[in-house]
Write a structure and sequence with these properties.
Rossmann fold, two-stranded parallel sheet, 5 helices
């Protein structure tokens, strides 16, 4: 997905803070801390910048960054993407078996 994003231009990744992930996914998450996730993303050649946000949605971050395009995974529809009123939306189809939830289920 990040390779696809890079083909579109500069890649800014919005990364949920640990508190945000816990609110959204429960007390056992995140599996990796925001700092660890950020370090992993910083090592990816397709990522230009990472912004950690504390809110439950990245709406305020999107207003701050002002992207031309927002890319989301295949479980979203264009009209259901937060910030679709602020930028064009592209949906990237999932690669089966590569979600954190699926990986944790298999462990």
């Amino acid at each position: 997905m990040l390779k696809y994003c890079k083909s579109l231009g500069t890649v800014v990744v919005g990364l949920n803070s640990d508190e945000s992930v816990r609110r959204l996914k429960g007390p056992e998450r995140p599996f990796f801390s925001a700092e660890d996730r950020k370090v992993m993303l910083e090592g990816c050649r397709y990522v230009d910048r990472i912004e950690v946000f504390d809110e439950d949605t990245p709406y305020e971050l999107i207003k701050k960054v002002v992207p031309d395009i927002i890319v989301k995974g295949g479980d979203y529809t264009t009209d259901g993407v937060v910030g679709s009123d602020l930028a064009a939306v592209r949906i990237f189809q999932f690669v089966e078996g590569y979600s954190t939830t699926r990986i944790l289920e298999n462990i």
